[in-house]
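Cross-posting from the modeling subforum.

Setting up a comparison between two proteins and wanted a second pair of eyes on the formatting. Protein 1 (sequence, then structure tokens):
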Amino acid sequence: MPRKQTITEKYTETRTTKHTFDVYFYPKVVLVVATTKDSGSRKPSTETILFSREIYKKYQGQKSWRWVSSLKPSEELVIVTRKYMDHYKAGNAWQWSPRTDGEQCISETRWKKVLDSGDFRRVVLDRLGYDAMFYGIDGKPVLRAFHYDYISAGLYSGLYLVADLFEWIKKQKGVSNAKMVDVPYYNSDSGSRAIEFDFTPTPQFFKQMMDAKDTFERDKLISAKLKVEKFQSPDYHYVG
């Protein structure tokens, strides 16, 4: 069980505000349940905040514990559902619909129960809106598959011998759900047919991808890994 500490602070300006912080110290993270009671309000408000031990070390010298309510989005952790973690690892983070597929994160009222069980695998820093990645408590990106549609893959029939390339790609390690698709006429300058696929890297190659300076360089690594240049069309041209 975690070590618990309860801290109470009062501040009087135009009215008195009482802050109570129940702090739970786990080996990897710190969970805070912050309750604020304003003398001008009937009901107290409660906020649940989760962050790494490193963030705790960064701020532990602060005079007041109110810093926990001012953490940056890049410092707060969340706990995602098992269903969404599987969805993320399959490379589908951009295709989630809470209305039809359920919630992305579990309820904050259940965070302590999960942490008490010792399960930290779904505790993440959510940067999906920034780079489509989850980051673990250690600050490292959580391995996932990458989906390449006809636009992001760029494997068009005007640029590659797609029939041969398709047979090659679907046999490569890490590739799944490879398919040949018809390109809509408004995007068909580079060919009317193209290849789409999912790619799941090994942990070692995933690190190389994450060390790339940008998405373009990362995609070049995957193209080189899959040796797609061997199938460039003799009439290779690019219209951009």
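Protein 2 (same layout):
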Amino acid sequence: MTGLSFFSGLSVVIPTRRDEPPDWVQDIITTSRNEVSEVMVVIERDADPIAMRPSVSGAERVRVLIQPGTTKADALNIGLQSAKNPFVIFLDADVQLEAGQLSIVRKLLDETDFVSVAYGQRAPPFPVISFVSGWFFGAKRSTFIDIGGWAEGYVEDVETARRILQAGHTIRTAPFAVKLRRPVRNPIAKGLATIFPNR
């Protein structure tokens, strides 16, 4: 899959902590370059932007943003607000992105407002309509902004799933799973939110 057919309409937002290896972000940028028209690397406000620069050196269509607040939701929302395209995909820096995955999610966004990507060896064997994956999540930008974007909370993706469902939307699950470079934060809370989205 070349991914070029969706090139002009997709922005990617990568929230990046100052303690994450720069080559993780560089790998994502390199893998995604034929599938997106814009990549925004959002760094923590107290991080050194010069020190973070090597992670995006030589990449085209890359912008570095400094988040104004201190939470992950804040970083994701500054990317959402700054995106220039109608479709936005949010990727954690620890995602091991494979070629073609962004284009699959982008195509699904023609049919739905939100797409979530599971992690692991395979996609869930049954439909899940309440799951937000903070590590790999796609949205129609205007719809997401209209409902308030990423929600603050102890686990921002759980709170965001509630917000999306309460607004009357569903969340489609992608037909593939993504590999991560480290364990998921708060896996029990995220699993319970998938089963009991309105608790």
